[in-house]
Write the structure tokens for this entry.
Amino acid sequence: MIRLVLFVSLLIGLLFMSSCKTVHTNKNGIPPGQAKKITGSQSAKHYAPGHNK
């Protein structure tokens, strides 16, 4: 019974940890807002994923 509880809690913990994604980065590994600051651009849209044309 203790092994089952331990296994279930470990499984739930892994599911919570694997579903977290907080910062979207571009191909250079820099968040869009930081890339905007570095280049001096007016908009971060060009650096955001899915907005590159």
